[in-house]
Write a structure and sequence with these properties.
GO terms for molecular function: kinase activity; protein-N(PI)-phosphohistidine-sugar phosphotransferase activity. Pfam families: PTS_IIB. Residues 1-103 form the PTS EIIB type-3 domain. The protein is an alpha/beta fold. The protein has one domain: Response regulator (Rossmann fold, 3-Layer(aba) Sandwich), CATH 3.40.50. The chain has helices spanning 14-27, 62-71, 81-85, 89-101; strands at residues 2-8, 32-38, 51-54, 76-78. It has a four-stranded parallel β-sheet with strand order 2-1-3-4, with helices on both faces. The longest helix is centred in the first third of the chain and has 14 residues, at 14-27. It is globular, with a radius of gyration of 12 Å.
Length: 103
């Protein structure tokens, strides 16, 4: 099971991306858990995930998110704006797999 934490503004549009990612994972027979939380809520959950993704609209918070994630050894990545805008769950899943598998 891969546990993904997406840090976003409010989580409304991100919920569509979460659904798309879960659908892509199901098609590829991956066990995936994805949770989208606001920048004010994510810190309580960072220890329980395998990777932290940052939504493009809050990329200005990247350094502070990375700092917290590094304290618990979690990788952090920015979601490509085009993939976020098009809700391309397949592409974001590929990004997660590359990072988690170290390729």
């Amino acid at each position: 099971m891969i546990r993904v934490l997406i840090v976003c503004s409010w989580g409304m549009s991100t919920s569509l991306l979460v659904e798309s990612m879960l659908e892509a994972a199901k098609e590829r027979q991956y066990e995936l858990y994805v949770e989208a939380l606001s920048a004010g809520e994510y810190s309580a959950k960072v220890e329980t995930c395998d990777i932290v993704l940052i939504a493009p609209q809050i990329r200005h918070l990247r350094k502070s998110i990375e700092k917290l994630a590094q304290t618990v050894g979690k990788p952090v990545a920015l979601i490509e704006p085009f993939h976020y805008a098009t809700m391309n769950g397949q592409a974001v899943l590929e990004q997660v797999l590359r990072i988690v598998n170290g390729t």
